[in-house]
Amino acid sequence: MSEIKNQTTPRKEKPQGIKALLVTLVVSLFFSILIECVGMAFIWPEQGAQHSKNMLNTEFNYLSSDFQDTLIMSDPVRFTENVVTSVHELLMVKTGLSKTLNEPVTDNTSFSVIIVHVISEYLIATINIILVFIIRLVILVLSIPIFLLAAVLGSVDGLVRRDIRRFGAGRESSFIYYHSKRWSGKSLLLSWLIYLSIPISIHPNFILIPMAFLFGLILSITIGSFKKYL
Question: What is the pLDDT of residue 105?
């Protein structure tokens, strides 16, 4: 009986990849909202919530113009539009925030008017950034084939260089292997974090393609520096 009691059942833990992905998404959303608020206060105070609204329109134009035909889903534009509309209705209408922001100010003193205006600007900007985050997340999901292609090319290139080193009596470097292996997954998550949090609108091709190339390069270095004999 004592031996049975001393036996500990293994705990089922979430896969580290899913956990890291969820943490990356939450941190990206937090940083995107924080950067927008800081920018409204110090960098583009004259634009206010209009800056985030312009970003929302630009990001949706990127999606509707360049991501219509994809391998992931048949109609990503309509899907994203439905999701954005539902989230906007949930955050603005069902919570009563839209009605509150549109109510006239009963106290006409200048200080109260300024406070209400500032709060409403930051709330609207926060909601716009959440919608921008959703659009960018959809674009990232639609860009998965690019990263898969980069992974395949990087793996093939790494295997070829490993075989050349193996049959050519090349030297091994465990330092390069372990450090590149450590950064293979981190580079992918870091690229997602940067793209989701960047406070300006840049065409996804100028960000995702170099990131996919960097991911494939790190993967090629990792596989190519793997030990010659198992």
Answer: 55
Do 83 and 73 form a contact (C-beta atoms < 8 A)? Answer: no
Ramachandran category for residue 10: left, alpha or beta (phi over 0 → left; psi -120 to 50 → alpha): beta
Q: What is the DSSP letter of 72?
A: S
CB 62 within 8 A of CB 202: no
Residues 29 and 194: beta-carbon distance below 8 Å = no
Amino acid at site 46: E
What backbone phi and psi angles, to 5 degrees, belong to 12? -85, 115
- Single-letter amino acid code for the residue at 228: K
Lowest mean pLDDT across 39-53, 84-98, 150-164, 170-184? 170-184
**How many CB atoms within 10 Å of residue 151?**
17
CA-nearest of 22, 29, 21, 38 to 87 is: 29
Distances (CA, A) of 90 to 30, 39, 85, 175, 207: 19, 26, 9, 51, 31
How far apart are the C-alpha atoms of 112 and 142, rounded to whole Å? 45
Q: What's the pLDDT tens digit per position in 57-85?
A: 999 999 998 887 777 888 889 999 999 99
